Amino acid sequence: MPRRKPLFGLVIIAAACLCAAAAPLIAGYDPTQTSLQSLDPPSSAHWLGTDELGRDILSRVIYGARISLTVGIGAALVATLIGVPIGLCAGYLGGKTDLAVVQIVDLFIALPGLVLALIITAMVGPSLKNLVLVLGFVMWPPIARMVRGQTLAVRESVFVEAARAVGGGAGWIIRRHIWPNVLHVAAAQFAVTIAFAIFTSSSLSFLGLGVPPPTPDWGGMVRVGFDYLIVNPAMSLAPGVAVAVTVAGFYLLGSREA
Amino acid sequence: MLTLVVRRLLLAAPNVILISALLFFSVSGLLGSPAGLMLGQDASPEAIAALNARMGFDRPLAVQYLSWIGGALTGDLGRSYTMQESVVSLLLPRIPITAELAFLAILAATLSATVINSVTVARGLVRPVAALLGIAGITVPNFMLGISLIFLFSVKLGWLPTTGWAPWSDGILEHFRHLLMPVLTLSAFYFGSFSLVYRAEYEAVRRQLYVRVARAKGLSETAVSFKHVLPNSILPVITYIGITLGQLTGGAVVTETVFSVPGTGSLFVSAILARDYPVMLAISMLIIVGVALMNLLADLLYTVANPRIRLT
After folding, report:
1. Predicted pLDDT at B289
2. B131 or A15, greater pLDDT
3. Which residues on A lie below 8 Å from B253 (Cβ)?
4. What gap in Å lies between CA A45 and CA A56, rounded to an integer?
């Protein structure tokens, strides 16, 4: 039974990636093309209706996968590139390096990720590139902590001791012996980080600090659609469901507890 | 006990000061002179310079920080740039609203996570449903859940008000009608997180020898679950509650925005969008101090939950 959950997550991720890659083929309309048919209810021409500027909602939801996946994967890459080397070094070297890393990680935990992301985004300005960098910067501490923990365990193994005994340097031992045994933890955390990066970026967009319009972005669409909830609920609920399902996909794939 | 509290507070103080300095320097450094923000885009350089000199914004950042932290320690958090009011007078009426929302949400999440998982883990009948609810709680964003609840209970059924806040003076019923959906929305994520932590510990504790002895003596599964396993599995949840309550002292930014709750979270979002950084910094500090205090409270609660633990 537990094996089915990552598989289920993988199916969801594949569907989201397909939407993102084949958006021009799947979506019936240009997501930024406005028309006079504003706030139309769902119909055979527009399955989820149109928004306040007459744009097809379904097409915007499909194209929105591109932004969410770009932000999610991009931010997770940045977080991994920062967190993995720091976690490896802290766990293997120990001592003052470890103490310093633990202190820095604790500092980050004092402020919730969303609050920190809000403050930094407000300072640097919202754009796709900034969102990726900000979320990557906010999300590296859990990766570093996880990798450090696993490194601490692997460091005590006999094969690491043997590598040290034959004169292996710290860099070589980390690269050849520690990293292959930490990789599975980092990979799982990478998937969870993508989930929370999509979650946080959509929350930022909902609060008005996401990718600027007219780019189709799920969080921003939910925010605009909220004002028209009575007229056409799909305008807000459809992108909201897309966020929830995509986040669940990555979470199921990566989380060991799920 | 008092010595312990004082020692822990003294240990937390350097971290609080360090984070406040990092925040102050980065916010002030990146946003530039507040005079430009206060006077608008059309302000002349002379007017900006005059305001900078009058408000002390032309002083070195280190001096401004010392002046700000000194003021903060004496209860003066400066004035809002956009609302022309002192930050303290803006915050004071909002803190009880956020505190009530956060407390009720955490209470609901803790009770539901511990009770549902104790029952389901013991019986194993509805366990997949509880696990699914936990995953949904973690992965469905607050704004999505909030809007779905508004759509169902306000738009479709007309049972609850869409948004807004009713003070106690409007009557208990009206107060809780406005509070119900925000509390549900906010508690969903924590229900999922607490469930994960609690279930893992619960599984470990129920394999202990004393639990098997309790079962062997003929106690029912419910009695074993609630009397013996639950009290010994609650410690990690207490840690989580400490961190969460601390973080929520700054408000539940998304939930408060969705439901237009006039708490510190919605004020924080307005301040961010308006780049009103005295308010931003004050609420950030509230969160940092809140996390430090709630962590301490969680440590103290450990000794209540498990008397074998002695804090040093």
Report:
1. 86
2. A15
3. 114-115, 118, 207
4. 9
| Chain A residues 19-58 with a CB less than 8 Å from chain B | none
The mean-pLDDT minimum among A229-233, B44-48, B97-101, B298-302 falls in: B298-302
Q: Residue A148: which residues within 8 A CB-CB, separation 6 or more?
A: A86, A87, A88, A90, A91, A98, A101, A102
Q: Give start and end residues of each alpha helix (H) in chain B.
A: 2-31, 34-39, 45-55, 61-73, 87-91, 95-123, 127-139, 142-149, 172-205, 209-216, 221-223, 230-233, 235-248, 253-258, 264-274, 277-305
Query: pLDDT (tens digit, 9 = 90+) per residue, B108-122?
Result: 999 999 988 888 665
Contacts of A235 in chain B (CB under 8 A): none
Report yes or no: A119 and B23 within 8 Å, Cβ to Cβ.
yes
* Greater model confidence, B261 or B34: B261
| CB-based contact A117:A177 (threshold 8 Å) | no
Cβ distance of B147 and A226 shorter than 8 Å: yes
Would you say residue A109 has pLDDT above 80? no
Burial class (CB within 10 angstroms; exposed 0-12, middle 13-18, buried 19+) of A18? middle
ipTM: 0.87
Cross-chain Cβ contact B291/A110 below 8 Å: yes
Q: What residues of chain A lie within 8 A of the CB of B249, using their CB?
A: none
- In this prediction the pTM is 0.88
Beta-bridge partners for A50: A56
- Whole-number Å distance between alpha carbons of B139 and A195: 8
Count CA within 13 A, CB hemisphere, residue B229: 32
**pLDDT average, residue stretch B239-253:** 80
When the pLDDT of each residue in chain B is averaged and rounded to a whole number, the result is 86
Calpha distance B73→B266 (Å, rounded): 24
Separation between Cα atoms, residue A73 and residue A246, nearest integer Å: 12
In this complex, do A115 and B287 lie within 8 Å of one another by their Cβ atoms? yes
Written in H, E and C, the secondary structure of chain A is CCCHHHHHHHHHHHHHHHHHHCHHHHCCCCCCCCCCCCCCCCCCCCCCCECCCCCEHHHHHHHHHHHHHHHHHHHHHHHHHHHHHHHHHHHHHCHHHHHHHHHHHHHHHCCCHHHHHHHHHHHHCCCHHHHHHHHHHHHHHHHHHHHHHHHHHHHCCHHHHHHHHCCCCHHHHHHHHHHHHHHHHHHHHHHHHHHHHHHHHHHHHHCCCCCCCCCCCHHHHHHHHHCCCCCCCHHHHHHHHHHHHHHHHHHHHHCCCC
Q: How far apart are CA B141 and CA A248, in angstroms?
A: 10
* Residue of chain A nearest B283, judged by CA positions: A115
A243/B200 CB distance under 8 A = no
